[in-house]
Amino acid sequence: MTKEAVLYQHGTLGALMAGLMDGTETIANILEKGDFGIGTLAGLDGELIILDGKAYQGREDGALIAINEACKTPYAAVTTFKPTITFQVERPANNLQINTLIREQLKSENLFHAIKIHGSFKEVHIRAMPKQEKPYKRLVEVSKEQPEFVKKDVVGTVIGFFTPELFQGVAAADFHLHFIDDGQTFGGHLMDFELESGTIEIEPMDSLLQHFPKNDETFIHTAIDYADLDKEIQEAE
After folding, report:
1. pTM to 2 decimals?
2. How many CB atoms lie within 10 A of CB 91?
3. Exposed e or buried b for every residue in 190-216, given b needs 16+ CB within 10 A?
4. Which residues pair with 159 in a beta bridge?
5. How many other C-beta atoms are found inside a 10 Å radius of the C-beta of residue 176?
6. For residues 179 and 192, what is the distance between their CA atoms, to the nearest angstrom?
7. Which end of the chain is more exposed for a tag (fewer CB within 10 A), N or C?
């Protein structure tokens, strides 16, 4: 019997957007739930990238480093990646064209999907959230001062998920993607790219396992303002 594909998520994007940025789960525990994923670190300290069971941090200074598994995260989404849909891209395409190709291959836009693209990129444009100190601001405000980086002629991997519109706030609806180069020196939240050629792999998820930080006093007792959540996510992403 085929094992179900499970997307495990600790925390929610909605809570992160509202400024709940304390680390509430260790990277070690996240890696027990999957070998492929994305997220951030305590205090919104850069971008979390998980590939082949290893965790990396895309930092605000543009560096990419391996993460100590004792580090904590307020928000991370992972799965054990076993793609069931694979196809090649043999001619140059920008991110919008690639997103269209992927959307055509999704089993349904009502399902979560894990997305992986490995290939040669003419250009990759990323950002990394700067570390925050208390009192935390809402994430949309932080995003206005995020450092951005561009690298040309790079070989690497796009990692992330497609989220159904129904789950906006739990995660970011549509595509939420990060990038890491093969040399493990450059990576972060993917903003734009031009792919020369590569392989796209997709896995539809059977289920979402949502984990909450029930022992975190701030999460338990904070009244979260969700009034402008959809607008803020679109601005920040």
Report:
1. 0.96
2. 9
3. bbebbbbebebbbbbbeebeebebeeb
4. 116, 178
5. 20
6. 10
7. N
Report the DSSP beta bridge partners of residue 176: 161
Instruction: Identify whether 83 is preceded by a cis peptide bond (ω within 30 of 0).
Output: no
Distance of CA 209 to the CA centre of its chain: 16
DSSP reduced 3-state for 185:
coil
Task: Of 77, 116, 78, give the one whose Cα is nearest residue 98.
Answer: 116
Per-residue pLDDT reduced to its tens digit, 120-138: 999 999 999 999 999 999 9
What tens digit of pLDDT does each residue of 149-182 get?
Answer: 999 999 999 999 999 999 999 999 999 999 999 9
Give percent of the chain above pLDDT 90.
Answer: 91
Degrees (nearest 5) of the Cα angle 52, 55, 57? 135
DSSP, collapsed to helix, strand or coil, labels residue 119 as strand
Strands (E) located in 33-112: 36-40, 47-51, 54-58, 64-66, 72-73, 76-79, 85-89, 93-94
